[in-house]
Amino acid sequence: MNAPAPLPLSDLAAANAHVVAVVERSSSSFSMGMKSLAPAGRQAMFAIYAFCREVDDVADEGGTTEERLAELNLWRDEVERLYAGSPTRLTSLALLEPVRRFKLPKEEFLALIDGMEMDARETMRAPDMATLMLYCRRVAGTAGLLSLPIFGADEPEASEFAIALSDALQLTNILRDIAEDAGRDRLYLPRDLLAKHGIDPDLPPKTVLYHPSLAGVFGDLTREARRRYADADRALARCNRKRLRPALLMMAIYEAILDHLERAGWRPDAPPPKLSKAAKLWAALTRGLLRPAWRPST
Predict the structure, then answer these.
(1) Are 81 and 44 in contact, with CB atoms under 8 Å apart?
(2) Is-contact 123 135, C-beta < 8 A?
(3) How many structural domains comprise the chain?
(4) What is the pTM of this model?
(5) CA 291, CA 267: separation in Å to the nearest integer?
(6) CA spacing 20 to 30 A to 158: which of 10, 103, 274, 298?
(7) Burial class (CB within 10 angstroms; exposed 0-12, middle 13-18, buried 19+) of 49
(8) What's the CATH number where 70 sits?
(9) Separation of alpha carbons 78 and 213, rounded Å
(10) Which three-class secondary structure state does DSSP give residue 239?
């Protein structure tokens, strides 16, 4: 099969508009952190997010297992074309300048595809803890490490911060989306914890969802997420905090989501928490990331 023709640079405006539309369509909490960046960094983050979103959609909605794996392989080929300077898709064209300007590592884009392949192969049903953390590194840690050059965070501890925070965010997502994932016949809860609480890890995900001991698993995984947030905080103490402000906005928002989940307790039929804009701003304010618009009178 002949490779598709590279897109001309004259399509760059359309490519940049495309990745912005992907971000806006997703209504992601990540957009708040992205929009705090200068224009070049913001556009770069939009392109990275669009890449992550579109590869994730292949794993979630790409047809049969064989069709999904084939499309992921096409994305691997596209990464190679991107780094050769000949992208053929709008999202990778939007990545062309960020890759050059920020020296984004190719292996992280490929690692993300490897993570999505774990979903596409339908192997993420009650993985062991080691496999779950490998999955978190691939699907979340990649985005964290790709973001650091854009933030200008080049100290060694920044990578430690990014990996710890990415783990924490992904574990929070898993806790938030347990019911939605079960509807897709997926179960990201580690079999080690399920077995610890007397739950057969090989039960169908929807059956696990209503198991009376699931609250114990929820509590253990919540504590693991909080441990990784604490690890991120410790690494942050040795970093330039100002440069990492977009990541800290995400940290504040997702810690607030985890707080909400923990306060509500485990209820299989509860809708996942969605923070209002005001709640997100409050989370950022309480972490010292925003200045109040008022001052108390003296």
Answers:
(1) no
(2) no
(3) 2
(4) 0.91
(5) 36
(6) 274
(7) buried
(8) 1.10.600.10
(9) 45
(10) coil
